[in-house]
Amino acid sequence: MSRFVLARGDRAPAFTAETTEGTRSLDELLADGPLVLVFYVEDATPACTAQLGAFRDDYATVRELGATVLAVSADGMESHRAFADRAVLPFPLAADADLAIARAYGVVNLDDPQRTRRAVFVIGADGAILDARVPYQPSVGEQFAAMFGALGVG
Length: 154
Description:
Layout: E1 16-19, E2 22-25, H1 26-30, E3 35-39, H2 46-57, H3 59-64, E4 68-73, H4 77-87, E5 93-95, H5 100-105, E6 119-123, E7 129-133, H6 141-150
Parallel strand pairs: 3-4, 4-5
Antiparallel strand pairs: 1-2, 3-6, 6-7
């Protein structure tokens, strides 16, 4: 488990993950423009549904800014597919069962090492981190607004 925190200007760690839209690598995702990488704790919980619901509700704006979203948790693909369908999520969910991505980004939950912490990283198309929110608190509107700031709004 890592205690480091990636910060603005750091290079985003590379990864490849199975997602609800097939296997995707960071490089493939960045080929489409900036990426909002969202770590959440668990599929279908009220807090995580609300967290990802905010990204769902503003996804059209994220896309207008040329960015995409990938949400990551330790849950498996079957759970992800059911959650994505139930919550009507327009972006893929990635399975990180061994927490390799969470470790690379320094967001393994130290209190529950089988889960990630809530975190959001905005990664530029060049692979540089434009904004990092660790921990991410969905109820703090300034943190959500900071994502849009990192994407060039405001």
